[in-house]
## 1
Amino acid sequence: FADRAGNLGSEQRFSYSAIGDPVNVASRVESLTKQYGLPVLVTENTAANASDLALLEIDLVRVVGRAQPVAIFTVLGDDVYARQPGFTSLFVAHSRMIANYRGRLFAEAAGAAAEARKLAPPTMHAFYDNYANRIEMLCKNPPPDDWDGVLEVLEK
């Protein structure tokens, strides 16, 4: 929730707005939708409050102005879709991809990404293609020992 919400400004000019760290983070995350090729991204706080929806964790990112990384998720559907066998299969393959990626098991992550892409709706294909490219780069140029799997987002 926003640190402050309400009318801001003066008597001559004001507008209803929200300010604070959660609003800044949400703005940074919203700007990542193009980079990930996904129509919707939400933070871990939103995901925790909507756990009945069909959610997939997408990445850990460190946005401008924040030292701590934040997990980001995409929403694929409602609670009915979340219980469908197709989504369950996708969730398992996708979760395996994320776990292997963070565990530096890049060949296994690539296999899980290919499996997940086959199970995913077309709106997620660009995401899996991008992740496959990222994994391929990490296979060719392994990260340093202190790599934490967090994507540094350097732009607002």
## 2
Amino acid sequence: MVLYFSGTGNSRYIAKRIADISGDEIVSINDKIKKQDFSKVEADTRLVFAVPTYAWRIPKTVEQWIQRVDFPQEIKAWFVMTCGDEIGNAPKYIKRLCEGKHFLYMGTGQVVMPENYIAMFAVPKPATAQKIIRNAEPEIDRIAGLIAEEKPIPDRKVSAVDRMKSSVVNPAFYRLFVKADAFFANDACMGCGLCVKKCPLNNVELKDKKPVWGKQCTHCMACISYCPVQAIEYGKKSAGKPRYRCEL
């Protein structure tokens, strides 16, 4: 089974490509979290988690969901993380998660995909994004091949900087930046409600046909990236930037 969490489509794309090669069933963690579905996950042979990198670790909301859900114990588990640059020391924390769930940890893969964190960085134009995705496909296929053959993903070399990013910067990132306060919809908003539908944490609702954000944001960027008229902004940081989503 391939389970994925994805704000703008990068991890979903990887999950689908892995599933095509491995023959595994594909399941959306977004849908599970949105429905508050913590029922037991049944998997026969293996689990593959395709997730984005949030400040050099897997998203906290995904980790919390995994911790709450019952899975088969002693089942093999692979993690594949999308990132705009690299994943830091994320495998250390994934190994700890696997130990707590009694998974047989089979490694963590890193796949560089187009940047989507519009709240802080520039995102690529469509042509550049397509090139990044095509360049990523051989690595996705290599990882998928290892999974299909039940082989571990080799460990990456971890530097002192990697360890600092995942241990020190990650909690500071959540404490200081992961808030929905800066989101707003301008006058171009049509009140279509797509942002409400896309939010995995049910953190967006329509009031007087305009979206309003609550306090449970995970900064997945789904609301701002999928707005059909680019009416949603994140303060001044998103102004003039192209929106990115992977819809291959």
## 3
Amino acid sequence: MVLQPSAFFARLPRQGSFLNPLVFALICTEMSVLLVGFLGLIDVPGGFNSLIGARGDQGFLEFLGGLVIAPIAGAVGIFLTALVTHVLVVLVVGPGHAGFGATFRIISYSSVTSLASWIPLIGWIFSLYRLYLGTVGIREMHATTTGRALLVVLLPAILVLILVVVVVGASAALFFRAA
């Protein structure tokens, strides 16, 4: 999957049980939480506990809480992300798409990047690779072009960026009008 995503997604069944993809994604999420929690427990600069200001026993309790909450939040997040992504697939790809099951599998299996995205300073690179995996997955599983698949993957980020620009612009206009 990581080294040959086109072949992986081309061979992947479009429909079927959600259990295997969900379990795969949750294992990746839980492993990431374990690794991030461990970094926090040993007080690695830039670790999770330093972000939230937890120290000592508080950091250990935060770590345990994360282990319990991560699978629940992960499952909800995967389904919500797949739902939003599939709405975009329907809008951008059109009626020839392979269905929600295919989109769910793309989101689930792309979570493999969380196994390395926890690494301080360079983890963000793996998050970018996740966008690539999503693009390849949508292209292969929904039989569309790379451009349309990329639009599906990037559209949420573009919409958030537009929202931020509008909110910041409106705030600046109010600030300068009041001054």
